[in-house]
Amino acid sequence: MLRELAGPARGCRTRFVSFWSDLDQVMVPVETARLDHPDLLVHNVRVSGIGHLALPVHPTVATGVREALDADGPGAATGRGEEPDASSVA
């Protein structure tokens, strides 16, 4: 399954947002919560100082999810790679 997920995904128009934390003890190593794929539009956001279970209720994450859902167009608020640490955006 992992090989299939890592395979080509050319033409995929789905936008992905991945929030991950440097203190997550569920995702080992923590970087596995990031989505890195050359064919996908990905917005990875590192949130510092919180654990896995706190991610859904953290203000930065909630705001980021709302902004991603409100974004217009297929390329809005997305990019390939990593966003700056979002810990100061709370």
Question: What descriptive keywords fit this protein?
Answer:
90 residues; alpha+beta; 2 strands; 19% helix; flat
Offer a quick outline of the entry.
With 90 residues, this protein is of the alpha+beta class. Helices cover 19% and strands 16% of the residues.
Task: Walk me through this protein's architecture.
- The chain has 90 residues and is α+β, with helices and mostly antiparallel strands.
- Helices cover 19% and strands 16% of the residues.
- It contains two helices and two strands, in the order αββα.
- The longest helix has 12 residues.
- The N and C termini lie far apart (36 Å).
- The mean pLDDT is 82.
Map the helices and strands.
Layout: H1 2-6, E1 15-21, E2 41-47, H2 59-70
Report the mean per-residue pLDDT as an integer. Answer: 82
Oligomer: single chain
Rg estimate, integer Å: 13 Å
The shape is flat
* Number of helical elements: 2
Terminal Cα span: 36 Å
Contiguous low-pLDDT stretches (5 residues minimum) are none
Structural class by SSE content: alpha+beta
Total number of beta strands: 2
Strand order of the largest sheet: 1-2
Helix content: 10-25%
